[in-house]
Amino acid sequence: MSDKTIDRRQFLKRTGAAAAFTIVPRSVLGGRTHPAPSEKVNIAIIGTGGQGINNIKELVEHQDVQVIALCDVDGRGLSRAVEVVEKHYAEQTKSGTYKGCVSYANFYEMLEKETDIDAVVVSTPDHTHAVACMAAIKKGKHVFCEKPLAHSVHEVRMVTEAARKAGVATQMGNQGHSGDAIRLTVEWIRDGAIGPVREVHGSTGDGGLEWTNLDRRPDETPPVPKNLEWDRWLGPAPYRPYHRAYHPYNWRGWWDFGNGAIGDMACHNLDAPFWALDLGSPISVEASATRLNDETVPSAALYHYEFPARGDMPPVTLKWYDGGLMPPRPRELEEGRRMGREGCYLVGDDGVIRCGGWADSVRIIPESKMRAYKRPPKTIKRVRGHQRDWIDACNGGKPASSNFDYSGPLTEMVLLGNVALRTGKKIYWDGPNMKAKNAPEADKYVRPEYRSGWSL
Predict the structure, then answer these.
(1) How many CA within 13 A on the CB side of residue 437?
(2) Engineering a disulfide at 193: which of 120, 188, 236, 328 sits with its beta carbon 3.0 to 4.6 angstroms away?
(3) Class level of CATH domain 177-381+402-446
(4) What's the CA gap between 149 and 81, in Å, rounded?
(5) What's the CA dihedral at 76, 78, 80, 81 to 10 degrees?
């Protein structure tokens, strides 16, 4: 045990009954709102492949974090992730060894058995975000979830409300939200740098062909890999036989598991206008796409949102382009300057603000207007990083800036684009009640049915 971090919980467990007769001030023991200086946030990771391993590598670098448990249905990736964690902590011990990270295939079992977990990071495919988040929230754990927050509008709303009720610290993985550029965008818009904004264009070069060129399920039914729990990977999605067309990488191209390019990138590239313009819920959405079918996401799509006036801000039209479709080039952009495939631009009565991907590299265009602009004071709190912002919230600090009360409505807006696309008509949206007022057939996309045995 000398090679493992001894925190407040372990101390109390070891001292047993003797501790019951010792009165220790709360300021010494710490707690959710008053952590002791020596106490670490014990974190579990659900989903260790892809972005999951990236999250692990970042988290172990924080001195006030201890990664104590990992969970994945794919044993191959899980084993590699455990090695990463234990190698990192072993380098900090005198003996050069560490065996303090447990692993599971079932996150319900992990949350039940590992009572020392304080916080959970969810980096699974989209279709299991909600069930994993909700399981953690019900146990009173803080939650960081990769984008999009969930697979459907209904799931997003349920997870957002549950986290608020539980009072846990949350953050969605739209990492650009913690950068300086998005804060500059909001401050400039509030300062009136380009006047009232009535039009937004956002885009990504990614499209459905990034993940699959299929339009129906494969006929082949190869055996499930030895270390993969396929039924648990499917989670609440309808059962289908295993195929590499779905796992480990291409799941984002299938409606049952992912949300296509808009689900992958709009929570990044539309974050700046959503925050700066306080967009909230749209009143209507319509969409069109290439290669539209019931199984796989489109190779390219165009989405058109309408937002009402908000306070003294005028109505806004927002368009999203993906899969190689591009917004019109703003006339303010100088000849010879590339617009780029990722990002967005906001059109005001007095000018244009352009942001790169992940809300980065914000500029007023043309550049001559940027140079002439007198920047306002920095009024929005800067943070030390996206995970750091969440860890500080877990330690009793202020809510992280992309907590679920913010990122939930952002994700709902994004996923509504696919509801309109799959419904095949312009939908008029009742946000509070999650209803397409003119299209009851949209309900099955707003709230897809879960497979038997799964629930929120």
Answers:
(1) 9
(2) 188
(3) alpha beta
(4) 23
(5) 160
| CA 413 to chain CA mean position, Å | 13
pLDDT of 26 higher than 80: no
Whether the pLDDT of residue 29 is over 60: the answer is no
Report pLDDT digits (tens) over 371-417: 999 999 999 999 999 999 999 999 999 999 999 999 999 999 999 99
Residue 44's H or E segment, with its range, is strand 41-46
Buried b or exposed e, range 186-200, using 16+ CB within 10 angstroms? bbbbeeebbeebbeb
Q: Which residue, 439, 441, 430, 404, is CA-closest to 155?
A: 404
CATH superfamily for 8-175 is NAD(P)-binding Rossmann-like Domain (3.40.50.720)
For residue 296, what is the DSSP state? B
- Give, rounded to a whole angstrom, the gap between the first and last alpha carbons of the chain: 38
At 105 the three-state DSSP class reads coil
The reported pTM is 0.91
pLDDT of residue 2 exceeding 60: no
Q: Domain map of the chain by residue range?
A: 8-175, 177-381+402-446
DSSP, collapsed to helix, strand or coil, labels residue 232 as helix
Closest alpha carbon to 234 in 325, 342, 130, 127: 127
Q: Which two tokens stand for residue 72?
A: 């994945």
Residue 240 near residue 221, CB atoms below 8 Å: no
Q: Are 332 and 352 in contact (CB under 8 A)?
A: yes
Q: What are phi and psi of 143, to 5 degrees?
A: -135, 130
Q: What are the CA-CA distances from residue 198 to residues 51, 364, 387, 422 (Å)?
A: 35, 16, 33, 27
Give tens-digit pLDDT for 418-452: 999 999 999 999 999 999 999 999 999 999 999 99
> Residue-wise over 330-366: b if at least 16 C-beta within 10 A, else e?
bebbeeeeebebbbbbbbbeebbbbbbbbbbebbbbb
The residue type of 35 is P
Domains 8-175 and 177-381+402-446 share a fold: no
Q: CA torsion 228→231→236→241, rounded to 10°?
A: 100
Query: What pLDDT digit, counting tens, does each position of 271-317 carry?
Result: 999 999 999 999 999 999 998 999 999 999 999 999 999 999 999 99
How far apart, in whole angstroms, are the C-alpha atoms of residue 68 and residue 72?
A: 14
Mean pLDDT of the chain: 92
The pLDDT score that the predictor gives to residue 43 is 98
Strand partners, 426: none
